[in-house]
Amino acid sequence: MIHCWTDEDPLEYFMGEYGFDQEKIEKFVTGMKYSAVMLKNGDIGVCANLGVSVDVRGKNALVPDLNNRASRIIYNAYLNALLNSRVSGMENTDICEAIDFGNVEHVTMIGYFKPVIDRLTNEGIDLKVFDLIKSEAGVIPDEEKSRYLSTSEAIILTSTSVSNGTFLEIMRQISGDSHVYLLGPSSIMHPFFTVYGQLRMIFGTGFFNRDERVLHVIEQGGGTRDFQKFGVKKVLNLDT
Fold this sequence. Notes:
The chain is an alpha/beta fold. It folds into 2 domains: about 10-85, no CATH class; about 90-205 and about 230-235, Rossmann fold, CATH 3.40.50. Helix content is about 25%, strand content about 20%. It contains 9 helices and 10 strands. The strands form 2 sheets. The chain has a 7-stranded mixed sheet. A hairpin with a 4-residue loop joins strand 2 (about 35-40) and strand 3 (about 45-50).
């Protein structure tokens, strides 16, 4: 059972709270792996496409329809740009530095984060990995996910679960005693997520103002490894 004070889709909450102002957008680009927004104030936000074709042609192409996956990606990137730079209390750090998983008996990861997988595996952490797209060795069939979510003490959850609409479904399967960590450049770093009681930290990426290199890499089809070097890893602690 979900341990929180709301059963609301995060993007629906943000739409009600902040809306969407297309006039704030200076540039929008999309590539094979990511989409990105740069606002007129120079703030940049990104969101992974995960195989979804994001077409921005047409007069109303950017107007979000939260029942549409491509629209959710655009809106997630917009929120990433709009909100991440506003939040105080963020520190430059990495999830493996911030969390001592050595004291956790069972860790489940939803989304394939290879650097984190390699590091935790090398440290002897019992890690179960699920991913809707990846088929690498060690990825567990999706039908077994509920069992591990209900018993794991720590969950590393891809932030793209928000844009692809699976976030609430996953949170409902997690034990109220578990600690959940949202991870990825698509993260919307905002204290609203404290309403989901198990969610303890959000790990994302901050970009330098008006850094066109990020947009260029994404437009050319680059992924996280290609543009991460232009950003700074950030964490928002929801327990403070």
